[in-house]
Amino acid sequence: MAINLTNTGDQAGLVNKTSEGGSFTTDSLGSFGTATTAANEALLHKLAAEAAAAAALVSQNEANSSAADAQSSEDDAEVSELAAAASAQEAADKAAQLTGLTATASTLVAGSSATATYTVGTGVLALGIPAGDTGAQGIQGIQGTTGDAGVQGIQGTQGIQGVIGNTGDTGLAGADSTVAGPQGTQGIQGIQGIQGTQGIQGIDGPAAISGISNSVEYIATAGQTTFAVTYDVGSLDVFLNGVLLAASDYTASNGTSVVLGLAASVNDVVFLQSFGSFALASHYSKTAIDAKIGTDIQAYDADTSKTDIAETRSESIDMADNVIQRPEIKDYSETVQAMTANDVDCTLGNVQTKSISGSVTLTFSNPAVSGKAGSFTLIATLSGSPAITWPASVKWSSGTAPTLTTAGIDIFSFVTIDGGTNWFGFVAGQGMS
Q1: CB of 214 closer than 8 Å to CB of 238
Q2: Which residue in 200, 207, 280, 408 has the fewest CB atoms around it within 10 Å?
Q3: Could you tell me how far CA 303 lies from the centroid of its own chain?
Q4: Hey, what domains does the chain have and what are their CATH numbers?
Q5: pTM to 2 decimals?
Q6: What is the pLDDT of residue 311?
Q7: How does pLDDT run across 88-111, given as a tens digit for each residue?
Q8: CA of 308: how far to CAs of 82, 139, 272, 315, in Å?
């Protein structure tokens, strides 16, 4: 029988036991550093117990063999059997000690010596194993998947409102609309005009307020609408920045204040001017005049044409192309216009005269409008070798202009109904002498 102890270095391990033909071999024993003497003794004691148990087993086997071989000698066999039983009992006792062996391990500070302590009474083997050096840091692992986005935070408090910007320029006028657009920015106040010459003082009247009795000027504050002034209702002018306001632009009904319909802007100039009522001496009042109408004063006659009254006029009446319907004309005359140039201007008269002694080109102007008939008479006094070029719009009988008298008076009439596009020419007389 052989018992071998092997120290394999600093690697800790367990004691492995194998049985090969009655022989026990310790294959490997973990190194615990430098073991103490007590630890070694505990281990040897354990191994000795194992060896005794093995020897007992061998003795029993030999006894059995001897008993078989020496069946003839029963006494020898019994002795051998008793010896074998005693050896077996001793081996069982050693094995019991081996079975109760326990081991504990604790970690010591790195770099210290290993320890081993064996307690015989309890069978406890206490091992102290130094901690190994810290290994190198491992490779960083792969970054994990990005987690879901967190819930959006609560909206922050709204910031303080910024300063109001300057008013922009007034936009271009849009197309006509039934909806009134926003009022444009009020323009800069113009320069105040030179004060006019003071007028002649009016005649004092009996009223409590007479003439231009009161005027007051205010420099408005922003949004101001009410301004104090004493006045007679209906006898007040209100000026805003030099512009006379219409009565619809303000309210003046209590005689002590004026309220603007549209609030004034800061530094607007509001000028209020009141007038008193008065009466002139030696003049009729409206009541007095109304009492005289129909007695001392002729009443109004709705018949403005005075169809029931004969009239003798000394001035002209310009009808401005208006109609005189169904007149009876008696003893009338027409204006005669002596032409100084070669144009027949119908507005100068419907009878025109012209002396012609050579070649002339005539034109006609200002006829009656289209749809109205217009006409004139031309009396031409001819001499020498007269020749007239008529306007192309003149239409003669058979399309041929008349031959002029060499010396004498020729009379021509012309009519148009289309505003002078076409003139119809007629010979009223030739060679008149």
Answers
A1: no
A2: 200
A3: 68
A4: 17-130 (no CATH), 214-274 (no CATH), 336-432 (2.60.120)
A5: 0.33
A6: 75
A7: 677 666 656 555 667 788 888 877
A8: 190, 132, 53, 20
